[in-house]
Amino acid sequence: MVKNSQPNTRQGALPDVFAVFNEIGIIAQLTETKMERALPDGLRMSHFSVLNHFVRRPYPATPVQLAQAFQVTKAAITNTLNRLETRGLVEITPSSEDRRSKQVAITPRGREAHTACLEALRPELAQVEAAFGRQAFTEALPFLHQLRQWLDEERNAR
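RESULT FIELD:
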């Protein structure tokens, strides 16, 4: 059973919008730790996130595009990509349009690793679902999806 520990935003100093972002941030940290412990073969959340990105958007991207998408430095994404390439999970090739640029794509082995990660995460996700019920997640998704889309659009407009 989950205890009710909702922040008092009505009487406190935090407006609701900040409280939502604060909760999302804390949830992200706790989730990353929980999920990373379950990932197979020493994969980290940063590795899984890149694989997941390519499964959701199955076309090649440049390291700069990936750095922008993940809101990290080019050096940070390059480190992650190099580790994934060493494992054969992504392929990094020179761009056909600009030889100075690189293109990154997921490999069949990367897709298999993504599937293995999802299977490894299944018990963790089932535990959370059992604590709150599927309906709570189903009802939360539309708002979270709209919020993410809006934030993506705002980021891209700058």
